[in-house]
Amino acid sequence: MKKTFLLGLALSATAFTSASAQSLTGAGASFPYPLYSKMFAEYKSDKGVSVNYQSVGSGSGQKQIIERTVDFAGSDNPMSDETLKSAPAKLLHIPTAIGAVVPSYNLPGVTAPLKFTGKVLADIYLGKIKLWNDGAIAALNPGVTIPPLPITVARRSDGSGTTFVFSDYLSKVSSEWKSKVGTGNSLDWPTGTGAKGNDGVAGVVKSTPGAIGYVELVYAKQNKLPFGSVQNRAGKFITADNGPASKAAEGVVIPADTRVSITNSPNADAYPIASFTYVIFYQDQKYGGRSEAQATELKKMLTWMTTSGQQYNEPLDYAKLPTNAANKAKSIINSMTYGGKKL
Amino acid sequence: MSDPARRLPTRASMSSGSDRVFQYLILALASVIVLVFVVSLYLLGVDSWPALRQFGVDFFTTRTWNPVSGTFGAAAMITGTLVTSFVALIISVPLAIASALFVAEYAPRWLANPVGYLIELLAAIPSVVYGLWALFVIAPVLSRWEQGYFASPEKIAIYTACKNIWDQDRTTLQCFFVPSAFDGRGLALAIIILTVMILPYTASVARDVIRLVPADQREAMYALGATKWEVISRAILPYARAGIMGGVILALGRALGETLAVAMVIGDSQDIIKSIFGGASTMASVIANQFGDAQETLHRSSVVTLGFILFFVSVAVNLLARVIIQRLTPKGVK
Question: How close B107 gets to chain A, by Cα (Å)?
Answer without folding.
Answer: 41
